[in-house]
């Protein structure tokens, strides 16, 4: 879930999508890319954010590649990455 007051920047989401499509095998991250594209249409929608977060959580080892080429996601997901 988004941190209270977190503002998702649609332009930075789009930049992240482009970088991921260029540098990461998109077959491995199809669900994440789809969720990010939906989130970009309504960046403040908590349901869309949770879908993106869940898609990221289900990536397994591909999470490292995603965070390498789309560091903005680490900002958005930092709360989820470091929860107990």
What does this molecule look like?
This protein has five helices and no strands. The chain has one domain (10-78). The protein is mainly alpha-helical and 84 residues long. The chain is globular and about 25 Å long. The mean pLDDT is 88.
Give a nutshell description of this structure:
With 84 residues, the chain is mostly helical. The protein contains five helices and no strands.
List the helices and strands and how they pair.
Layout: H1 10-23, H2 30-41, H3 46-57, H4 62-69, H5 71-81
**Biggest beta sheet attributes:** none
Residue fraction in strands:
under 5%
Number of domains: 1
The number of E-state strands comes to 0
Radius of gyration: 12 Å
Give the H and E element order.
HHHHH
Determine the N-to-C terminus distance. Answer: 15 Å
Number of distinct helices = 5
Task: Please tell me the overall pLDDT.
Answer: 88
* Shape type: globular
């Amino acid at each position: 879930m988004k941190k209270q007051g977190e503002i998702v920047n649609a332009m930075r989401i789009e930049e992240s999508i482009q970088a991921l499509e260029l540098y990461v095998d998109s077959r491995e991250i199809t669900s994440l890319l789809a969720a990010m594209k939906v989130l970009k249409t309504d960046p403040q929608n908590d349901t869309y954010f949770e879908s993106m977060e869940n898609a990221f959580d289900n990536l397994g080892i591909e999470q490292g590649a995603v965070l390498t080429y789309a560091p903005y996601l680490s900002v958005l997901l930092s709360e989820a990455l470091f929860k107990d």
